[in-house]
Design goal:
By secondary structure, the chain is of the alpha/beta class. The protein has helices at residues 34-43, 63-74, 85-104, 115-135, 152-158, 176-179, 185-192, 203-216, 249-256, 259-271, 290-303, 325-345, 362-371, 386-394, 411-414, 426-437, 441-457, 460-472, and strands at residues 8-14, 17-22, 25-30, 49-53, 77-80, 141-145, 164-168, 197-200, 221-223, 228-232, 237-242, 276-283, 311-318, 353-357, 374-377, 401-405, 419-421. It has two domains: 8-245 and 461-487, 3-Layer(aba) Sandwich (Rossmann fold), CATH 3.40.50; 249-457, Glycogen Phosphorylase B (Rossmann fold), CATH 3.40.50. The protein has 18 helices and 17 strands. Helix 10 crosses helix 13. Belongs to the glycosyltransferase 20 family.
């Protein structure tokens, strides 16, 4: 029998490739977002597999053929889980984004607890589990990503399929007071206990999960100390850990130093007449606190009128879930706020807020990071927030300032050298910005040097290694690159 190399299998709601309709047909583009950025490099040419939904619910579309070329260039296999429009509506837009997303971000008033969503969520999770069972073998390590797929281990076990499984939650895990509002709380907790390892972004998230588990299963006992512990349920055990996700530090830092990016950085500063730049970068979402941030900048200009004409706030909002009414309303609210602030303070030659509602090419985004004197990262609640880490990696001048929400997961790692603020406290943020704008150069450099060191040491590869070490006592080097010559095409 031929030796079967152990493979790392990533399972997520979306594949790392997006299908886009064009005049000439369909186009395949590399997906955006932290998950793709994080995991694509660690699967490449290591015999890896990624299982997910393509983003299309057209039954007549030959998705596998469209993705074949992308797969060969990416260096790992892609397997598509086909979903119908009804499944997308109930499982993705419904349960995942109208129940779990707001609930886990402490915004339970936005939840719509429709039983139909729950039933569809289970149906789709079973569909994913069937694909995992078909496309993997018992030697593989199955790494499930995020809240869309919390029932994978449960369904694999119900089918009698033995796999080593790990689950990582990219968003926060709520306190018992909030989690207990979920009508299906027991079944969700039970499903999560079926994984061999459940990972969270922060120790606080892990503690919240443990508290919810003990509320529903009083017999649960924690064994051990540190970032990874064992949860004993009496008849079985599984592991819990805190694994703060990160970025490819070198990729961002090196790009910021490329001559063409440095030229873009200079052009941005020149266009804004070398005024101080405060930068916000977010996916358009109600958890990101963009309206509160704009009001905070408005408060800054009102309380410190000497800053008028000397500072610009640049907000980049990447389009997201554009078909959802709540997101349309949020976009309208932000645009109206920008209009009000600019209407109140603008004068010939100076417009205080520059608002961009679009996706930016990677190099242009890096140039904005490099140009910014202050990054204003103030989500109302966030699992981690990689923008904070990207800004630090790109700040090669070493004298930028990170103003960070205390409710972002990144605050747990970066709190010593970031300026922490309450995202709901507009006067507090205004005062923090004013103080940071007047920090002396040495103080800024000292804090940014420490921030950059933190992000460099605890990079994306450290995150993967720490999870795999806890899950299967392996690291990335145990998944060596394979000989791709045997796959060459004629």
């Amino acid at each position: 029998m031929a030796f079967q190399q152990q493979r790392l299998v990533v399972v997520s709601n979306r594949l790392p490739a997006a299908l886009k309709k064009t005049d000439d047909g369909w186009e395949v583009k590399a997906g955006a977002g932290g998950l793709v950025t994080a995991l694509a490099p660690v699967l490449k040419n290591r015999g890896g597999v990624w299982i997910g939904w393509s983003g299309s619910s057209d039954p007549n579309l030959d998705v596998d053929s469209l993705l074949a070329d992308f797969s060969s260039k990416a260096g790992y296999d892609l397997y598509t889980v086909p979903l119908t429009p009804e499944e997308v509506d109930g499982y993705y837009f419904g349960f995942s984004n109208e129940i779990i997303w707001p609930l886990f971000h402490d915004l339970q008033s936005r939840c719509r607890f429709h039983p139909r969503y729950w039933r569809m969520y289970l149906d789709v999770n079973f569909k994913f589990a069937e694909m995992v069972a078909r496309k993997t073998n018992s030697d593989d390590y199955i790494w499930i990503q995020d809240y869309h797929l919390m029932h994978q281990a449960f369904f694999l076990k119900s089918m009698g399929v033995k796999r080593r499984t790990g689950f990582f939650l990219h968003i926060p895990f709520p306190t018992p007071d909030i989690f207990m509002k979920l009508p299906w709380r027991w079944k969700v907790i039970q499903a999560l206990t079926e994984f061999d390892l459940v990972g969270f972004q922060t120790m606080q998230d892990r503690r919240n999960f443990s508290a919810c588990l003990r509320r529903l299963m009083p017999e649960a006992r924690v064994q051990g100390r540190g970032a990874v512990v064992t949860m004993d349920l009496g008849n079985r055990q599984f592991r819990l850990g805190a694994f703060p996700i990160s970025i490819d530090y070198n990729q961002f830092s090196e790009m910021a130093e490329r001559p063409e990016v440095e030229q873009q950085t200079f052009s941005i500063k020149e266009a804004l007449r070398h005024r101080k730049i405060i930068l916000g970068v977010d996916r358009l979402d109600y958890t990101k606190g963009i309206p509160e941030r704009i009001r905070s900048f408005q408060t800054l200009l009102r309380q410190f009128p000497e800053l008028k004409g000397n500072v610009n706030f640049v907000q980049i909002a990447v389009p997201s879930r554009e078909e959802v009414d709540e997101y349309k309303e949020l976009r309208t609210e932000i645009e109206q706020l920008v209009g009000r602030v600019n209407g109140e303070f603008s004068f010939p030659g100076w417009v205080p807020v520059h608002y961009h509602y679009r996706s930016f090419p990677h190099d242009e985004l890096v140039a904005y990071y490099s140009a910014a004197d202050i990054a204003l990262v103030t989500p109302l609640k966030d699992g981690m927030n990689l923008v904070a880490k990207e800004y630090c990696a790109c700040n090669t001048s070493g004298d930028g300032v990170l103003v960070l929400s205390e409710f972002a997961g990144a605050a747990a790692q970066l709190q010593k050298d970031a300026y922490l603020v309450n995202p709901y406290d507009m006067e507090g943020i205004a005062k923090a910005l004013h103080r940071c704008l007047h920090w002396d150069r040495e103080e800024r450099r000292s804090h940014m040097t420490h921030l950059r060191d933190q992000v460099r040491k605890n990079n994306i590869y450290w995150w993967v290694d720490s999870f795999l070490q806890a899950g299967i006592s392996k690291t990335l080097v145990d998944f060596p690159e394979v000989d791709t010559l045997k796959f060459e095409r004629v």
